[in-house]
């Protein structure tokens, strides 16, 4: 990507970075990692044992579940952190029945303690926003780069909220998540591309910027692009060579240079007024609902100059999920050769 477009025009995959945040936190939180391994052993045992699987089904039916409501264990996939989340979520949902299954079988692995069950419940609550975001950005539809800063702010507030973790392992996991998250996402506002995309998204604008300076810088860059567009639109057409070559003594001594300077000043002031007016009206409009389409907003907007810029930046996607899915379906990989 850098070789093709340059470093300033490329972004890392947000989905991949988020995956690394949670996986790294799992690896550093040794106590939690140990419990995760114990759950995986139990899940593997039940899924691989016909007798255990039959008991799991039997006990669910005895508990009042219908045949079409029978739940199976979910296994973790090492490359996707959220698969561990779903494994733990299903384990807690079936924990009482799992305890009965393990008690019935002599070869079964040891079940978790009540404190370990508590840790899993805490971790599920802590990880829920990460799972929700991961599920959203991993869907078929393209996620635009304008969502990265808002998502960063929301997850940051969740991690910094007054979540009381009772278990020591839960506290360590919470701390490791904060550390890994800050290392990868704390400075995203400084990314020029992300700042512009976010300001131009009518669902977000300046709401999620933690730094007023970063928001102001992004708006300043938008101003520059607006001026360039307006100046191009108002640039006078080139007159014929005959009229250009008319020369008088007054021209030679610069009689009209002062007039030209005044015209240029007036023109620049007009452009600045046009830029400020359109930008101010856009920023003063209410934030639109998150479920609305920003593209539809711009296609119907009364801001012609901003619309041109917005539609250009809304082609920037935040993840490589869709492209990776395309190549994995096709069975091809692009290389430098």
Please describe what this structure looks like:
With 337 residues, the chain is mostly helical. The protein folds into two domains: 12-140 and 168-188, no CATH class; 191-235 and 263-337, no CATH class. The protein has helices at 2-5, 14-28, 30-48, 50-62, 81-93, 95-104, 114-137, 148-160, 168-185, 192-199, 212-234, 241-244, 249-252, 257-284, 294-299, 304-313, 321-330. It is elongated. Helix content is 66%, strand content 0%. It has 17 helices and no strands. One of its GO terms (molecular function) is zinc ion binding. Residues 280-337 form the HAT C-terminal dimerisation domain. Pfam families: Dimer_Tnp_hAT.
Task: Based on the model shown, name its key terms.
337 residues; mainly alpha; 2 domains; 66% helix; zinc ion binding; metal-binding; zinc; HATC_C_dom
In percent, how helical is the residue content?
Answer: 55-70%
Average pLDDT rating: 83
Strand content: under 5%
- Class by SSE composition: mainly alpha
* Coarse morphology: elongated
Number of strands: 0
